[in-house]
Write a structure and sequence with these properties.
The chain has about 120 residues and is of the alpha+beta class. Helices cover about 25% and strands about 30% of the residues. It has helices spanning about 10-30, 100-110; strands spanning about 35, 40, 45-50, 60-70, 75-80, 85-90, 95-100. The N and C termini lie far apart (about 45 Å).
Length: about 120
């Protein structure tokens, strides 16, 4: 089955694992960059707060670490309770993975370079 025929639920795990691998490589690199991936500061597109109600059925604020945009797009979401999710989305389809343990900490550490999460997570 080619990627174009797969749903996001079929692709989310592979894409999540690839993103985590890249972020570990960048985080562990001496200068926060590699020749292949570039710099950690340039790896994603945006880190910003998404207010509750921005999207249909969105009940709470979250911090979005947006990695790609369009179709498909992917991002990490950090919620006020500290939960982290990875989302893979493509035109009216989407799937998520709950990010836990050392990988959730990694995402929070990366995002904390740009914004102070201590004022957001309760």
């Amino acid at each position: 089955m080619e990627n174009e025929n797969k749903k996001c639920k079929d692709l989310v795990k592979e894409n999540y694992e690839s993103r985590i691998k890249d972020l570990i490589t960048l985080w562990d690199s001496e200068e926060g960059e590699t020749e292949e991936l570039g710099g950690l500061a340039d790896y994603g597109l945006d880190i910003s707060k998404v207010e509750a109600g921005t999207f249909e059925k969105q009940r709470e604020d979250y911090i979005r670490y947006q990695l790609s945009w369009g179709g498909p797009s992917d991002e990490f979401r950090i919620f006020k309770n500290g939960d982290v999710e990875y989302w893979y989305m493509d035109w009216n389809d989407g799937a998520k993975i709950e990010v836990v343990g050392k990988y959730a900490k990694l995402i929070k550490d990366v995002v904390s370079i740009a914004i102070d999460l201590s004022e957001f997570i309760v």
